[in-house]
Amino acid sequence: MDALEQQFQDTVDGDGRIEPRDWMPEGYRATLIRQIAQHAHSEIIGMQPEGNWITRAPSLRRKAILVAKVQDEAGHGLYLYGAAETLGADRDELLDLLHAGKQKYSTIFNYPTVSWADVAAIGWLVDGAAIMNQVPLTRCSYGPYARAMIRVCKEESFHQRQGFEALTVLANGSPAQRRMAQDALNRWWWPSLMMFGPSDDNSPNSARSMAWGIKRFSNDELRQRFVDATVPQAEWLGLTVPDPDLRYDEETGHYVFGEIDWTEFFEVMKGNGPCNRQRLATRVAAHEEGAWVREAAAAYAAKHSAREVAA
Ligand code: BYC
């Protein structure tokens, strides 16, 4: 290890932060760009399943909340693309890679939102899983990513609560509303567990990411925490988690849960989930149709910076 690498590793081991101008191993930079880009793409693709319900939200209040939530997700994408840029990545190139199917986004957003209860379940489960995964990222070794995560997590926590509240109303409503809530839990439970990534023995990036202080906990550790926190919430709602093997282990104080369908996970990751093609096509169309907005914004910024130089 040369002196620069030693200094880098000492900073990481001492729980310090690596900043954009600090020396860093190329693998560290590449890993961060990969993860942050995937995360940013997930935020903006994640606007679609819920955006689908903005025009059909059951009340003005629900609509206003949903508009704000979807808008927050665009904002999260913005902070994250900004964090990736501090590593030398080019935002347009990252978007091109997403559009060409060469960079991933979270598998969870390839499932359809067929009823209003799905919007509530996404808030409760998907944002709940996101918080579990992202709170440790506020202490990630790369400063700009860690700082972006602080604000993201505050907003995700509002998102999770609004989802739980919306699902509480359905779970305590008419028999038809309760059926909708249960149906949404049935469809979103397993995909939410998959959000944490492959099991630890099948996670090629984990060891290095943990040594570099990017990941603080393993995929399986975070998944277990999520199950432990969420099963009692399902019970409180009077809903049944769709897992016949689920049981509480008195000795360990953890829930034991059934085997995840990893074939489904890898198929969705490869692009063969129920909505992969639709999500990407919608994203590409939005990008193309928005070209004039980007051009106008760039022309406006250029005009103003030219004026500043002249002044
Ligand atoms: N989906 O070695 P592993 C949100 C890939 S946004 C797709 O464990 P790593 C929200 C992984 O990239 C939620 N791909 O990887 C937004 C790797 O691929 P490559 C997004 C997945 O990176 C709107 C391969 O599998 N959150 O919350 O060490 C509305 C092997 O995996 C997935 C983030 O992005 C997946 N689920 O760990 C509502 C959080 N899982 O590139 C909510 C930040 C794994 O090696 N990211 N892969 O071919 C992370 O924390 C980590 O990247 C992961 C994976 C834990 C996800």
Report the portion of residues in β strands: under 5%
Pairing-aware structural class of the strands and helices?
mainly alpha
Helix content: 55-70%
Cofactors and ligands: benzoyl coenzyme A
| Integer average pLDDT | 97
Taking the sheet with the most strands, its summary is:
2 strands, antiparallel
N-to-C SSE string, H for helix and E for strand: HHHHHHHHHHEEHHH
- Described by the principal axes of the CA atoms, the overall outline is globular
In spatial order, strands of the major sheet run 1-2
Keywords:
two-stranded antiparallel sheet, single chain, 13 helices, 2 strands, mainly alpha, globular, binds benzoyl coenzyme A, 311 residues
Description:
The chain is mostly helical and 311 residues long. Helices cover 67% and strands 2% of the residues. The protein is built from 13 helices and 2 strands. Strands 1-2 form a two-stranded antiparallel ribbon. The mean pLDDT is 97.
